[in-house]
Amino acid sequence: MPERAREGHYLGFDFGLARIGVAVGEPITGGARGVTTLQAQQGAPDWDEVAALIEHWRPLALVVGIPPQHADGTESPVARASDRFARRLAGRFALPVHRTGEAMTSQAARQRLHAIGRPARGRRDKHRIDSTAAAVILEHWFAEGGTA
User: Is residue 148 a part of any domain in this protein?
Assistant: First the structure.
């Protein structure tokens, strides 16, 4: 059985080539909430914005969702870009970076927003979906017994 995550903040990322949702959570509650969505160019965020988030939240570790594979089991281009993003996070910020599956997290985010009376509609709500999906990713990692 893996060791439980240590008490403190963790940041979760829902990676995308155009947008990266960000959430903060604590393992003591197992909960997370979306905090922002970063614009990205081919998966590369404004690293100064990422640094500001890390400075503000002072996380113990970072958690990046792993996009699903193609139906034939091969890795998708988004998954490869997500791997590169995770490696760059680790290299730039000297924090542990963990990976966890993100299958269906955007759908779960839409359902969660709908359940609280804030249904996501249209392009302007994509940012809320992405940051909420990052919260789903982080909560999944906590539930799976994520370790720092």
Answer: no
Residue 117, sorted as left (phi over 0), alpha (psi -120 to 50) or beta, turns out to be left
Segment 50-106, tens digit of pLDDT: 999 999 999 999 999 988 766 777 778 888 899 999 999 999 999 999 998 766 556
Which residues span the domain enclosing 45? 10-143
CA angle 68, 98, 62 (to 5 degrees): 115
CA distances from 5 to 10, 12, 132, 144 (A): 9, 14, 21, 10
131 within a domain of the structure (yes/no): yes
What is the SS3 assignment for 109? helix
For 75, counting Cβ atoms within 10 Å of its Cβ (0-12 exposed, 13-18 middle, 19+ buried), the class is: middle
In a domain, 3, yes or no: no
The predicted model scores a pTM of: 0.81
Percent of the chain with pLDDT over 70: 74
